[in-house]
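New here. Your pick:
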Amino acid sequence: MDMREIRATARERMKGYCRVCPVCNGVACAGEVPGMGGTLSGSSFKANVEDLGKVKVRLKTIHDAKNPDISFDFFGTKLDLPLMSAPITGTSFNMGGALLEEMYIDSVVNGSVDAGTIAMIGDSANPKNYELGLEALKKVNGKGVPIIKPKDNKVVMEAVKKAENINAVAVGMDIDGAGLITLALQGAPVGPKTVDELKEIISSTKLPFILKGIMTKEEALLAVEAGAKAIVVSNHGGRVLDSTQSTAKVLPEIAEAVKGKIMVLVDGGVRSGVDVFKMLALGADAVLIGRPIVIGAVGGYKEGVAKVINDMKYQLLQTMILTGAKDLASIDKSMISIEW
């Protein structure tokens, strides 16, 4: 599949919801939530892309990193690269409905597996969407991660149990969905969690638990205290709160505070394998990608998703060769310069 063909098809299918811009930077779609944009002014979405763009890679070619190892161990599951598909739901109100929810989830889950990695599946006010995600993961022997909205603890723990039943690799919560009033209006109230509430949820399962939506070192340390095994540094793609810092900007401080105590994942503005490299150099262990996966799925189903991931895989490998990184552990801040 050709990316130009995938993007053209996605642009046609998502008319009025996503323009599939040459650069996916949140400018044209500012305030378009529902839709694919960032909330209000769109500044949080735009900052993710802008700040990552201010991280520059230092080209080096006198070294012996001829065949870098880009494989990543994710809680005992070996991935071909340190990248996973982010949890996204709501095809009808965010993507125009050209793909039914089931078609979208199947495309992302299977396309990710075909490309040598896994997908996270999302949650919404409609319990059916979570169930569809579980069904898709069950068909690939649980190779994925269900992510649950911060609903009432009883509801969350029931959803966690369902993740256990399909032998998911891990399970988690996108706690940054705490302010989604639309969910409350649809009968699924969400809200912040105390450390004790998180401990109750996390202690109820043997699966590694991931907290998605951490943007400060203080909350990263609280995630460690609560017993989480991984965090995702994320501002929800700039879709829940205007004027937040970018994930690239807060990542180094968070990684410095908790690296080695907890796995550090990140999302926000990642558009290429070079961007993946930058996030790893800033302190992440692995990254999640969202909007590029949407374009791949809507424009080319599972083949489109696999194409997006495989392109990033090649770009990451090339970047490592051209910076002297033999493996993921070799990537550090000495290989980048930061212009902010």
